Amino acid sequence: MSKVIVLDHPLIQHKIGILRRKETGSKEFRELASEISMLMCYEATRSLPLKEVEVETPVAKTTVKQISGRTLGIVPILRAGLGMVDGMLNLVPTAKVGHVGLYRDPETLEPVEYYCKLPYDAPKREMFVLDPMLATGGSAAAAIKFIKEKGVTKIYFMCLVAAPEGVARLQSEHPDVDIFIAALDEKLNDHGYIVPGLGDMGDRLYGTK
Q1: Nearby residues of 178 by Cβ (< 8 Å), 6 or more positions away
Q2: Do 201 and 208 touch, CB atoms closer than 8 A?
Q3: Which candidate in 8, 25, 33, 71 could, as Cys together with 83 as Cys, close a disulfide (CB 3.0–4.6 Å)?
Q4: What is the pTM of this model?
Q5: What is the distance of C-alpha 84 from the center of its chain?
Q6: Residue 104 annotated to the active site
């Protein structure tokens, strides 16, 4: 079973609290989402392997450590996942960015892929899939399935706010994908919204409601 890591760093929790407030405007909301994502990236990459290499400083030769193994990739789920990309890139600017777009079929209610563009070397990268809200888990599970079909084998999922129902579904369908969460909320309501949540992430990011 995959690991579920709730990142309870005080700065993350403080910023999540401001993000939840209904009076927080789009500009501040976008800035907070990016800042939280950067802090989460710092924690989520803690286990990346290191190797020693020799460099020469202005004074002498020495041995330093640098990230070893696979390079990183970032895949936001459109559109709300875009709000987390810049924060991640602030810490890992060499990461390649792909995109996955989904819509829900009105008859089957199942997620359908309408766009999937990944880096050409995606199978060689460790991919962080970004979606701020993990509600039912349907979109996240489908996006990860599509990414796996492109040959990617090492995947992490990162979200700002999650419901227990979404975590359970993602673990059930993708037990090999570790899940990083800034806040694990109480439940889903009858309309599929996370409670207490923070509303519609995409609308609040881009001021469309």
Answers
A1: 2, 3, 4, 5, 156, 157
A2: no
A3: 33
A4: 0.91
A5: 7
A6: yes
